[in-house]
């Protein structure tokens, strides 16, 4: 398989795991504190990846890179993921809306990548983004009464998506230098350890929870956090941050399918139309490129 196509395969694996996040997290409501969930999954995920680093004999990291990794970890673990958890825990919040809004993070990735790494915003990418956003809006609004939605929840989810876009671009830069495995391991550990004092100050349990949900915690830690984040940056290294992150638009589609199969939710006409727009937008970005081969190399 060609490197570029392999990169999209890595990202697809990521999105499949990420799409189970809301469904699995729903089983933890009132059983594990949402901030505790973040700490546990990133701390455990970080340790698991660190064990792999130890096995490879490659744990060394320069101090300047360690500082960058810590910033990346704080943006993701402490800020973005906690804002998403707050969004999900707002009164009358809708998990589907929060998930769909968060899935709009490729918009922010595209623009952050343009300013930070110099990735070009081409016409096909702009139209692909527009179709993807329209699809996301259709899926999120279909069958939902807006007057029953707490507006704080969508705003927090949007802020989470913005910060995740920044995390993706900065994390991608660091990952290219020190490797995805090392970047994720250290950023997860440093981010979760930065979150730890806040848990203690606000008297949030650290490791005490309803142990009947241990399987869910381990799944979120190992697969949704450890493996999925690793394959995410492995994929971005081959596709470019802007193009690779667009596959994130598939998350609301897959999340809805998982919700239908596991939670018994129904598929609506708005969902079908939104899915078509999302797939068309991704196809537009990945396969329609009017640039010459010389210019298209800038996207990689």
UniProtKB/TrEMBL annotation:
Residues 6-140, 155-286 form the EamA domain. SUPFAM superfamilies: Multidrug resistance efflux transporter EmrE. Keywords: Cell membrane, Membrane, Transmembrane, Transmembrane helix. The chain crosses the membrane at residues 7-24, 36-54, 66-84, 96-116, 123-141, 153-174, 186-207, 213-234, 246-264, 270-288. It is found in: Cell membrane. Its main location: membrane. The lineage of its organism: Bacteria, Bacillati, Bacillota, Clostridia, Eubacteriales. This is Putative permease, DMT superfamily. Pfam families: EamA. GO terms for cellular component: plasma membrane. It comes from Acetivibrio clariflavus (strain DSM 19732 / NBRC 101661 / EBR45) (Clostridium clariflavum). It is a multi-pass membrane protein. It comes from the Bacteria. Belongs to the EamA transporter family. Signal peptide: none annotated.
């Amino acid at each position: 398989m060609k490197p570029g196509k392999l990169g999209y395969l890595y990202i697809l694996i990521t999105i499949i795991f990420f799409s189970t996040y809301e469904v699995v997290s729903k089983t933890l409501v009132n059983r594990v504190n949402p901030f505790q969930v973040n700490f546990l999954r990133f701390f455990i995920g970080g340790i698991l990846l660190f064990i792999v680093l130890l096995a490879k004999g490659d744990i060394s990291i320069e101090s300047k890179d360690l500082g960058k990794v810590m910033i990346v970890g704080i943006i993701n673990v402490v800020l973005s993921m906690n804002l998403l958890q707050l969004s999900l825990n707002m009164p009358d919040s809708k998990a589907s809306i929060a998930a769909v809004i968060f899935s709009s993070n490729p918009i922010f990735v595209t623009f952050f990548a343009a300013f930070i790494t110099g990735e070009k915003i081409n016409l096909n990418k702009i139209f692909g983004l527009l179709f993807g956003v329209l699809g996301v809006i259709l899926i999120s609004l279909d069958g939902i009464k807006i007057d029953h939605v707490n507006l704080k929840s969508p705003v927090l989810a949007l802020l989470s998506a913005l910060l995740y876009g920044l995390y993706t671009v900065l994390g991608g830069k660091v990952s290219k230098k020190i490797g995805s495995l090392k970047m994720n391991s250290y950023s997860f550990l440093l981010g979760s350890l930065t979150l730890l004092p806040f848990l203690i100050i606000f008297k949030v349990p650290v490791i005490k929870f309803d142990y009947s949900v241990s399987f869910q915690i381990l799944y979120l830690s190992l697969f949704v956090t450890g493996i999925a984040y690793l394959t995410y940056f492995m994929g971005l290294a081959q596709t470019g941050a802007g193009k690779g992150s667009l596959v994130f638009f598939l998350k609301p589609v897959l999340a809805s399918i998982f919700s239908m199969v596991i939670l018994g939710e129904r598929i609506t006409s708005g969902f079908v139309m939104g899915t078509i727009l999302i797939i068309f937008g991704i196809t537009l970005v990945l396969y329609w490129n009017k640039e010459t081969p010389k210019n298209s190399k800038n996207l990689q």
